Structure prediction request, 422 residues.
Amino acid sequence: MPPREKLARLRRLVPPLVGDALDNLRASWRAQALTLAGIVWGAASVVLLLSLGSGFNDFLDFGFGKTGDRWVAVDPEYTSTEAGGRLPGRRIRFTVRDLDRVRAGVPSAGRAVAENQDIVPVVTPRRTRATVVSAAGPELFHIQNHAVGRGRYFDADDERRGRRVAVLGADLVEVFFGDLDPLGRTLQIGGEPFEVIGVLVRKGWQFMTNSDIHDRMIFVPLSAGLRALGDGETIETILVEPRRIQDEPVVRREVRAALWPLHNLPPEETRAVSFMSVPEISEPSRRIFFVLQLLLGVVGTVTLAMAGTGVANLMIAIAHERRAELAVRRTCGARRADLMLQLLVETAVVVLVGGTLGVAIGLSAVLLIQVAPLPPDFPPPRILPSVVSTTFLVLVAVGLAAGVAPARVAARVDPASALRVT
Prediction:
């Protein structure tokens, strides 16, 4: 039979077969209730577990995104080779000259900023508390994805003029000023007065921090912070943000090329500075979360496959019980392929009806979890079109696999023996 005629025949046969299958399911739903329950449970498990896995991935991206997703930290270390008559072990010291050299000599960097952090006593009329203070250039606002809730962030003019201004993390407003408006008020940092000009939007839990989360930190311009926190010259860290995440290796090479001549370092020197990047830190966590999501998907798929085994056994039993009916169809001219198609369609109907109900239950469970009062660090599951489509693809695969054995039983029916009256 030509392919076009086969396709036309399928179009004629499948709709009435689906109708018959639904009628049989309605008539014998009590006998098939346990099998349907397995399919429902399996489909709901796949949706729920894959949604949880998607939630974990979002949780990871969101947690790292609060701190910045691509910056590279460059820290001064000790030399490992002899250079310029100096023995190995010389301490490298960064100053503003190093920052200027990086800005001028690293074209793959979109932004570069120096940052010093220290824990110092911060004094207000209401309270004195040891607090992490970050002294950095205004570019830190973009590199670390800050957002201002009230007031403003310090700018290049504040940095250039050395103004003693401060921006508070969201949690520190109540700590230092209670119910008062902090804008325009003064706090003492390292014995020097700083005027509060802004308050950051609350970030909450962060996946990666240095000294503390940003909600509990104070941010001041680098020029004023160097005087209040250090010797006025030494820089602890230079943060470099590549224009593209994939440019990180190029940025590292360009930083070495820019700083090595400034510190009289030979080309073979490799330990004078250290690099730490967000992608480098996040990649192991991403792999763990990927394996976790894969494991959840496998668990749900195995659960659904076990339910499919029950469907196959049920349909084999139905094929045996309906041998006389199948024999009559065979006698009336039905082909073996037609009998196989009948049992495949009936199996698919059972699987898809139970699977659709299971997907609906799984989606309802995900929505309930999303609106439930969850702990702040718990990643809520997320519904993705790919989760639903993957579930139905698994259902189709399970339906086809579960229908093969019953279809073969149906195709082997011998009309003479099936209709013989004993």
Observations:
- Residues 3-64+284-419 form one domain.
- The mean pLDDT is 82.
- The beta strands are 72-76, 109-123, 128-136, 148-151, 165-168, 186-189, 192-200, 217-221, 237-242, 273-277.
